[in-house]
Amino acid sequence: MENIQTMSIAQALSEVMKAVGGIAKKDRNQAQGFNFRGIDSVVNAVSPALQKFGVVVVPSVEDYSYDTVEIGRNRTAMGHVKVKVTYTFIGPNADAIKTTVVGEAMDSGDKATAKAMSVAFRTALLQALCLPTDEPDPDATSYERSSADDVLAPSAILLKISQATTSDALAEVGAYLTQNKSRYTEELVKQFSTKFLEKRNQLNLTKDGWQTEGATHDIQPESSGVTV
């Protein structure tokens, strides 16, 4: 092996590839019962070799998009982020090779962007270094987004009612029920109405108004969104 300081970036990456070899799936998704290769596993395996052969990796975000999608029959709202990132691999001789990848991720909180960046970096390392992954074919699994014709499952409606902490949140559920009442059985509608009334009383709401911290706010009866 020649002196590291005189290596081109292509030669340095070749040595990194030899040093790393394959990366096993050591992480476990307990909820869905499958093993996966996380970003930490990939970086922990690759980082020592990159350091040894003087390779620095610098990211640059080329494109970014964020929207909200609804997943499954319960129509769970998820933040959906796509990033296009160019990674520059700079060698010990100051020459460089660039690779551009796309990362995509969803999250119900504020982690969608961080997840998408992690996916992009992992993809860049795996593909630029041609690391064996033993991954299943991408066509082996598929996902279906909720359609406009889908309605919330009864359990999801009851959950939304129980989790409502403000008049606006409860009114939103009520409006949805009023709009889609005909798509549920009479028995379910009665159940929804009972839970709705219980929550309205719990929040100290009335048809003439609602009270909180000693203040009274006028709200029309129909703003509750459901006839009870």
Radius of gyration based on Cα positions: 26 Å
Shape: rod-shaped
What is the string of helix and strand elements?
HEEHEEEHHHHEE
Helix percent reads 25-40%
Total helical segments: 6
Question: Termini distance?
Answer: 81 Å
Number of strands: 7
* CATH topology (level 3) name of the largest domain: Enolase-like, domain 1
For the biggest β-sheet, the strand order reads 3-4-5
* Low-pLDDT residue intervals, each spanning 5 or more residues: 208-225
Beta-strand percent range:
25-35%
Average pLDDT figure? 79
Total separate domains: 2
- How is the biggest beta sheet arranged? 3 strands, antiparallel
Q: Which structural class matches the secondary elements?
A: alpha+beta
Provide the CATH top-level class of the largest domain.
Alpha Beta
Q: What does this 3D model show about the protein?
A:
The protein starts with 8 loop residues before the first helix and ends in a 10-residue tail after the last strand. It has helices at 9-20, 39-52, 112-128, 154-163, 167-180, 186-202; strands spanning 27-29, 34-36, 56-71, 76-90, 96-107, 209-212, 215-218. α1 (9-20) crosses α2, α2 crosses α3 (112-128) and α4 runs parallel beside α6 (186-202). Strands 3-4-5 form a 3-stranded antiparallel beta sheet. Strands 1-2 form a two-stranded antiparallel sheet. It contains 6 helices and 7 strands, in the order αββαβββααααββ. Helix content is 37%, strand content 25%. The longest helix is centred in the middle third of the chain and has 17 residues, at 112-128. It is α+β, with helices and mostly antiparallel strands. The radius of gyration is 26 Å and the shape is rod-shaped. A hairpin with a 4-residue loop joins β1 and β2 (34-36). It has 2 domains: 4-134, Enolase-like, domain 1, CATH 3.30.390; 154-224, no CATH class.
